[in-house]
Amino acid sequence: APLAGVIGMPIAHSRSPRLHTHWLARYGLRGHYVPIPVMPEHLAEVLRVMPRMGFVGANVTIPHKEAVLTLADTVTDRAALIGAANTLIFRPDGKIHADNTDGYGFVANLRQNAPEWSPDKSTAAVIGAGGAARAVVASLLDSGVTELRITNRTRLRAEQIKAEFGARLVVYDWAQIGNMLEGATTVVNATSLGMEGKQPLRIPLDALSPGAVVTDLVYTPLMTPFLAEAQARGCHIVDGLGMLLHQAAPGFERWFGQRPEVDDEARRVALE
Ligand code: ATR
């Protein structure tokens, strides 16, 4: 049976094994999906051996998402632009193909859960400039956003993203975060603020339009304080779990030959 898994460190808390195992059972497919803890100094060796062990591919998570780009034989344009990969395909000859499906997952989640969302020719606001923010920025630009505002506690990281992604980006100072929301129809928290055990993301929402779609990449808890406040203002909110589910679908299809459905049952399984 074909093998796939998720490579990271730590990896015990990953929801991916439950999700993929659920999809395998649901579609009656042969295969296994396992968590694989790998230290950074062992990544190259593990990737070389996995195809010979029967692995057809893998997901990659922290801290390896950047390093796999240098170890892969081929890298998609979007993974190169984002500077990270989350999905690997092992070819029959052992060659490694690296892709990034995070941006796809981000957009697919909004399209599924906010059907009125229409990014084309709109203004978006992204809070945060880490690895996850880069995938969000790439996918929003692909979706036709004309102005993409970005802010980050460490301003330099936002400026680096602008330098790489270009003219449609506007960097706002972290102190100007409230002003960034005016006229934005997509608002994204791509920081880790709001996660269980961390401080909430607290920003003045007075300028936020009630017509905006507001989403958070944090999904523990599903309802972050930021989303709760946006909802209280009448915004359409979308939690971050769907991005996790949707980013998993292309890999599953490539490895096991069946496009899996992201539905309530998949959500429930990932939360168990
Ligand atoms: P990820 O891959 O999840 O994006 P990351 O690259 O470590 O992880 O990025 C974390 C993001 O959360 C960054 O935007 C970070 O801001 P800095 O670049 O200034 O570190 C943001 N973040 C984390 N803790 C924060 C805090 N206490 N206040 C403001 N921003 C914070």
UniProtKB/TrEMBL annotation:
Q: Which InterPro entries match?
A: Aminoacid_DH-like_N_sf (IPR046346), NAD(P)-bd_dom_sf (IPR036291), SDH_C (IPR041121), Shikimate_DH (IPR011342), Shikimate_DH-bd_N (IPR013708), Shikimate_DH_fam (IPR022893), Shikm_DH/Glu-tRNA_Rdtase (IPR006151)
Could you confirm whether the keyword NADP appears in this record?
yes
Q: Which residues form the SDH C-terminal domain?
A: 240-263
All copies of domain Quinate/shikimate 5-dehydrogenase/glutamyl-tRNA reductase, residue ranges: 121-192
Q: Does the keyword Amino-acid biosynthesis apply?
A: yes
Q: What are its E.C. numbers?
A: 1.1.1.25
Q: Which Pfam families match?
A: SDH_C, Shikimate_DH, Shikimate_dh_N
Q: Which EC class does it fall in? A: oxidoreductase
Which positions in this protein are listed as binding NADP(+)?
A: 77, 128-132, 152-157, 217, 240
User: Which residues constitute the catalytic centre?
Assistant: 65 (proton acceptor)
Q: Where is the Shikimate dehydrogenase substrate binding N-terminal domain?
A: 6-88
MF terms (GO), sorted A to Z: shikimate 3-dehydrogenase (NADP+) activity
Q: Know the name of this protein?
A: Shikimate dehydrogenase (NADP(+))
Q: Specify the species.
A: Paracoccus rhizosphaerae
Gene that codes for this? Answer: aroE
